[in-house]
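Sample entry (442 residues):
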Amino acid sequence: MKATPKKAPTATLPPALEAIARTVIEHKLPNGLKVRLLPSDAVPTCTFYTFFRVGSRNERPGITGISHLFEHMMFNGARRYGPGEFDKVLESNGGSSNAYTSNDVTVYYEDFMAEALERVIDLESDRMRSLQVTPKMLASERQVVIEERRLRVDNEIAGMMDEELSSLVYKAHPYRWPVIGWMKDIEAIKREDCLEYFRTYYAPNNATIYVAGDFDPRQAIALIKKYYRNIKAGPAVPLVQDSEPDQKGERRAEVRHPAQAPSLMIAWRGPNAADPDTLVLDVLQYALSVGQSSRLTKSLVYAKELAISVSVDWSWRFDPGSFVVGLELKPGSDPKLAEAALYEELSRVAHEGLTDRELEKAKNNLAAHLLRELATNNGRAHALGTYEAMLGHWREGLALASRYETITADQVRAAAQKYLGDSRRSVVTLVPIAEASPAEAA
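Predicted structure, serialized as tokens:
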């Protein structure tokens, strides 16, 4: 079978990963749908992923949260498979499904027995072609999302702090609003908004399919052509303008909420996923926070006993993302002391760098994470699909372990100096308050 001609990156891969790369088959339908096949007969199961290049980044004030709302609506009925049928049919064929929405992408996937591949292709193509956005369905899923927001943001400390932090870090970019959306926007989204959004972003020319597992590639392509080729391409997806201004000083906010102890979230804006510094910050993230012997855990949790947990979140994004440190403190502790201790450790990294052991351990953990994800059908499809979305080609992701290995202590030190400066940080402090009594709340 002839794959769609495409010049792939020339990154050198280790033999085991080169063997995986040789199995990948690329194809593209006339309507713009990209297809990536990852055949493997290790076990008689398959995974089917659909990546749509749409997330909260593509929204605007008034319809924030619509991408996440669609994640829910996509399971609630299309022309051939009506309300409740998607999961019912899939489960009757030994399968399961799930999805997630991020700032940049919305992703749907199914795991199932190999013989159910055609039925899964039928199910997925049906909802891409003819999702039924009825007033009843919209009202039902809107309420589900409203309750999810109440649970995960309005009544969840980490959610509140993260939402406040994003609005500090970003002044102009769509990354400033939450993926789940602002409550009043969720309540106000109209059916007409949904129909326009679906036509634009849920079109085949804005999607990539990854199929991994035990199947015949020729048959899989024939089935995908059969079910998808008559779905019309959508209009050109509007470009997202990155108009975010340079930050010229520290930004601060407080969240006052009933809690047992204070917490801190501190963020610095970093590069986009394709920037070489992103991989350097990956190494720094792992050195600072992954494992009981990581630098911040040893210093702030065990040695100084200022925090009960430390986390570092550095997530790849299409546009410049944020490097976030979270500190959950002990009851009665002083956030200023914990904050000062954190900056002392980061300053030490920026001036002295990581030790050889820290650098080696971070690289080993990153490589192990990459290889573990490639061990299953689901992990392999998700990993390569994410690499293609973020880096431009799936092969770039297979080369990551080799690229991490070349990162030096000097590069980590330079990245810490470049990105983690005082004037680039945004800080949110949770200030615990007493919970109101039922009489006061009334």
